[in-house]
Design a protein that fits this description.
The chain has 344 residues and is of the alpha/beta class. The protein has eight helices and 14 strands.
Amino acid sequence: MGYRVAVVGATGAVGREMLQTLAERNFPADTIHALASTKSVGKEVSYGDDQILKIEALDKFDFSTADIALFSAGGDTAKAFAPKAAAAGCVVIDNSSAFRMDDDVPLIVPEVNPETIDGCLIKNNGRNIIANPNCSTAQLVVALKPLHDAFSVKRVVVSTYQAVSGAGRPAMDELFNQTKGIFVNDSVQPEIFTKQIAFNAIPHIDVFLDDGFTKEEWKMSAETKKILDPAIELVAHCVRIPVFVGHSEAVFIETNKPMTEKAVRSLLENAPGAIVVDHRANEGYVTPHEAAGEDAVYISRIRQDPTVPNGMVFWCVSDNLRKGAALNSVQIAELFAERKLSGR
């Protein structure tokens, strides 16, 4: 028997990617409901190569008719509708930050901490809600997991270079329109971003906190601790760059146990969800352009950090719409299906 699946936010970039990923991976779904706001009702979205779904109204949908709901509609929508869906017996997999740090909501990357799914259900005193981590955190912990298991990661310093698709379809449109406008000498008027994004880099993602860090930077630290280990110290600097799809990260780690480059390389080459491409030659590394449309976290430029004991440096890139959002959500749903769990 297949599952009844609802995708909330089905007209957005991540929602569309969720539908595509469900179809590509042959998720065992008997029915698929594409949900969005009332103004989108009747619009059509693709499910796989040959199916068209009509948008249904989120605020009128009966979640008791669904087993799993993939939410990608923002924090406010998740807070309003996810608890209602969960109470109706539907297991919610939410892509927003609304529930990530709640103690009774698991924050899951299936290659890293799949076991945490077991306590999420209401019948096990859970809330029927599972959180998907921030896109930058998701790819980072895939790389950190095997290194932490082997060498005990003590500290992480990470600089991210994040694609505009992380801010949604309007942000992608802004990059396109600004780029086109600059070539014909039009004036640039930022609307989504705080400054011009075309041919620029903006060291500011999400709101500023009192300590000078942004919320995006705080998320990476807090979520890594929750997913991997509260003892890991992490500091991040997050930058938005004029790339449509694909987040990149320069990662510097320190470990409690000695490690060699050879051992690190071997662990990463065998890590679930990771692919090492590192040839120390022109084109011997992966950029966000090559990662777009791919499922893996790609790791390159692995080398020893000579400035600290037990230090290593690497570069990792991933498609933020897939592993950072849609793919990870679908993998969680697959985890749910493998365990034949039910929220009811």
